[in-house]
Amino acid sequence: MMWMPEQPPTLLRLLTPQLDATSVFPAVALLTLAAYLAGVRSLHARRRQWPWYRTASFVTGIATVLLVTATQVMGYGMMLFSVHMLQKLVLSVLSAMLIMLGAPISLAVRTLPRRGLGAACRRLLLGLLRSRTAKVVAHPAVTTTIFIGSLYGIYFTPLFDVLMRSAAGNVAMLTLFLGTGLLAFGGALGVGPWPHRASPPVRLIELMAPGPLHAFFAVAVMMASRPLVQTFTHAPQGWGVDVMTDQLAAGNIVWGFGEVPTVAAAVIIYAQWVSATRRTAGVTDARADAELDAYNAHLERLAAQATNRR
């Protein structure tokens, strides 16, 4: 059975650790973190470098996953729209961005053994990255459609109430949110191997494209004159929660929360763009210098030949 709260939420209660038989997310998150740290340790054992900020980003990303799935946020998210929306946005935006900045795919490619079971896993990973299906799914148009489609397709249809009837349905929905976020940021950030590679300008457009539709969703939630979903209309009377006020808070969270991580990601992509431009300019300058040196040497040879003829 999934733990459900009996007292009204406070910050302390929300952040209180809470695990039960349905705590699949925390278990998978911790196993993923252990595998990542084992990979980093393997590189260090072979005296190979791995950027510390990649590790810090990945660890922080997993920590944010645990923050909203291994605490009482999980239970309160089943009863209050505002808490659920905060949980959803942390997973699909903040956690996904930090995890992908940790470059887990690059680490896996570099550390998986080339023999035995590890070699089979490595071939499977590379095969998936190079597959036609992965290239289609990772295309910016497809990832954007999935990201926005999951938003409108769940909250503006009866599907949300169906999923929220059980702990398994809730876990499946949260998995979808995290997965769509990983897809979106995996392509937009361009860190490590990815099925569909795009230039920084295209990735900036990919990152910003869902913005207007995301904002429209927030406005629709805030301006709704009736509850959008039935799940959150039955908060305990002793909590003093007004359903429409809580729904307004959920809309405000959608409006404000996604902006900061998105702007941070845009800054990262812009920095990658500037760095790539400088590298290209450096290569071009070096090539031009080499051509100029060769031309000057040619002129010197011609001058020497003319002198010898005299």
From TrEMBL:
InterPro entries: Caa3_assmbl_CtaG-rel (IPR019108). It comes from the Bacteria. One of its GO terms (cellular component) is plasma membrane. The chain crosses the membrane at residues 20-40, 52-77, 89-112, 133-155, 167-192, 204-224, 253-271. Keywords: Cell membrane, Membrane, Transmembrane, Transmembrane helix. It is a multi-pass membrane protein. Its main location: membrane. It is found in: Cell membrane. This is Putative copper resistance protein D.
